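To fix ideas, we quote verbatim a fold written out as tokens:
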Amino acid sequence: MRGACQTVDPETFFPAPSEPADAAVALCRTCDVQGACLAWALEVGDCHGVWGATTPRERRAMLVAWRSEVAGQVLPGTVASLPFLPIPRPRRMEAEQPDPVGAASG
């Protein structure tokens, strides 16, 4: 069984932050392995790209909701039993970083 993504340029599934992911999501929704693809992305905590017709933001929200629902009923080996998955944050450019304390006094 092959995913629909096998016939498309992989870049389709990794749009730039300013670009919509609509084309990738639409293609995923036609795929026979959409559920398995989404389950894999949730299990490994992949935070980039479109997987199983979901964006990174949607998957992070799913994980938060799932963890909230299963609190107290976490089974070993499930997504909810994984340690907290940090959300990558863009690094600030050096010029934007605050000066160390006392480094620059006019």
